[in-house]
Amino acid sequence: MAQIKVSWIWDNTRSRLEKVSWHRLLWFPGHIPKFSLISWMTILDKLPTKDKLARFGLTVEDKLPTKDRLARFGLTADNGCVLCNFGLESRNHLFSKCVYAKGILCDVLHSCGLTQEPLCWSDNLQWMLQNLKGKSLIVHILKLAGTGLVYYTWEERNLRLFRGLAPSIKTIGIYVV
Ligand SMILES: [Zn+2]
Fold first, then answer.
1. CA of 159 to the centre of ligand 1 (A)
2. Predicted local distance difference test score (pLDDT) of residue 174
3. Which residues of the chain have pLDDT under 70?
4. Rg of the Cα trace of the chain?
5. Is-contact 61 78, C-beta < 8 A?
6. CA of 80 relative to ligand 1 center, distance in Å
7. 1, 111, 126, 128: which has the fewest Cβ within 10 Å?
8. How far is the CA of 84 from the centre of ligand 1 (A)?
9. Separation of 93 CA from ligand 1 center, angstroms?
10. What is the dihedral of CA 49, 149, 42, 79, to 10 degrees?
């Protein structure tokens, strides 16, 4: 009886989809898995931001079945951004419109020797796709900085939301760089 290889099973039990253009920004030699994972979820807009929770009624005060329990998980009637206290928290807000996140991005861009202004979410992604090509050291550093920025911004949001902690923009910038 012929032996079945694991690779054959893998190839024949999954549906192959077309590669997305941004995969190389996340999965590259030397990537940091936790940075890439959070960035992957961010690009797919799968992070549980408050705008999404609101769609499920989790932030509407009179619909909370156990308000105190949800409050312990940071779910309150407030859908605002915990980083800048202004605007509805969404992927696009957290990673491009938020004044706080823009401050971190400016610090990171400056540290990487770039002088460009932060763009909107889709333009930032497009810029990275067009400019972060090849295997040079600077491209590698910028990919790590990009995924690290997303990771630490999300971590900062969670620290503020769930633990009430608030490190400074400079601290986050130092983590990323
Ligand atoms: Zn904000």
1. 14
2. 57
3. 1-2, 57-78, 166-177
4. 19
5. no
6. 8
7. 1
8. 4
9. 6
10. 10
